Amino acid sequence: MVGRGKWRRLVIVLAVMVLTLGVAVPAMSQVTPVVGNSVDVFLSVTPNTQYRDGSVAYTVAAFNAGFVEGASPAWIDVTFTPPGPDGTASGTPVVLATGLRIEVNQVITWNVTTNPELLVPLAHIEEGVGVALAKVDYYARYDATPAYYASGTKNIPVTVLEYAELGDFVWNDLDQDGIQEAGEPGIEGVTVNLWSVDELCAPVAIIDTMLTDANGYFLFDSLKAGDYKVQFVLPDGDWFFTMQYAGTDDTIDSNANPATGITDCVTLAAGASDLTIDAGMYQMQELCWADETAWAYGDDYAKPNWDYVNNRFWGWTNGPLSEGSYEWDLYAGAGANILSNGTVIGKVYVDYEDGCVTVTYEVDEGYAIGEAHLWVGNDVLPKVKRGRTSVYTNAPGQFPYGDSYGFDPVDSSTWESTWTWTQCGFKGDIYVAAHAVVWGQVECTDNMIE
Question: Left, alpha or beta for 20 (phi > 0: left; psi -120 to 50: alpha)?
Fold first, then answer.
């Protein structure tokens, strides 16, 4: 017969066995512990932020919690199944432990980064926060008979980052104004260096180099988020950088420092595309002074001189003009009176008021007035005696009004950009024929004045 005290001891033992040998319920991040000896398995991923062509690796940890007094060691079997190419837990299972003893309060860790098969590519994960699925299965037993079995599948959030890119254009700034304009071509074969920087954005090292393409473009791609600087290298020859940050549109200005060719700091976020990093350059040319004939063209008032004279020299008289103010282009080199043959190099202003006429020549920067010849009168052109008759003349030297500055290419005091004439006593409609000899700087050829 069993005594009352022995029954009490047997019930306690059975109760403890039931609690110890019960089956745990799986959870997403770990297996729910049982009272008594309890082995938990944890799963973590590193890094949890990675670029598209990178990979992530897992760490598996087992822990014998031993929640009650008298808990004992356990023996564990652990199998880890990594994600397959589709991101689900379909990779090749890897046995991490078989019959491995784990003491109470002991943690055993498997760093699966040592096993290349467990590196998980991120190509299948969409941009932003993706999910890489992995599964860990394990047995835990406290004697020769399995005590319980549990398995869990954990969702591992991974932030997938896209690479950034940086570009884009090196151009020949023909007018040296620092702004990209129609007709200014890209420059092929310019060396462009990409620099890493320190925390103060000072250049540290060149991390990539390329040449601009046939149209002057360049692109650094596959860049991680961060700060960079770009350096442009002037081609061989007399090349110079144009001004930096001209105008208000940063898509068509020049970012290169004129002294160093290096940009300010460029900050890229993940996935960003900054195609505003440009450099303008220009080439110094030997310039010489050359003279050219110029005439004022009065639009609807302009009449070819050859309508009134017996020659085909180009030029115009303008009228009839009533009292008022007029503004006309001053064309140089418009042979045959074809405007597209010439160049607008300034303006001529006519003010006619109360019988007084004022005519002003103004030429653009880079030009100088060598001589001015002017006709103002009630007839289309001045007349000269030819035998017993008077005929019109379009010879500027026979115009009644004018001036000569004695232009000297080495004496800037002779480089006049304006000329003004005034006279009163006119009545009725008038005509104005405004001629000039202008000097301009052009690329040198033979027989030019430097």
Answer: alpha
